[in-house]
Specification:
Layout lengths: L3 H24 L1 H27 L4 H21 L1
Helix pairs in contact: 1-2, 1-3, 2-3
């Protein structure tokens, strides 16, 4: 089973990253292009990591916790720029 509170927090935290990324993409240029490429790369890596966790018996809570770590790192990186 999963923790709905943790999922709700993930949704709220991810929304901030979406906002920051959209602003960076809207400005365009080389930074916007690099962000778009990094975003796609991160999505693929996160999918592979989550799949591996679930295939090896990990829980949904573990996957959500790991996604929240990734989201927090992105929020910090994008806020600093």
């Amino acid at each position: 089973m999963y923790n709905p509170f943790a999922v709700a927090l993930l949704v709220l935290e991810a929304q901030k990253v979406v906002e920051l990324r959209l602003m960076k993409l809207a400005w365009g240029g080389s930074e916007g292009c690099a962000e778009a490429q990094q975003m796609v790369s991160e999505k693929v890596s996160a999918f592979i990591e989550a799949s591996g966790t679930l295939m090896t018996g990990g829980s949904c809570e573990t996957v959500v916790a790991r996604y929240r770590e990734h989201v927090a790192a992105n929020a910090k990186r994008l806020s600093a720029a």
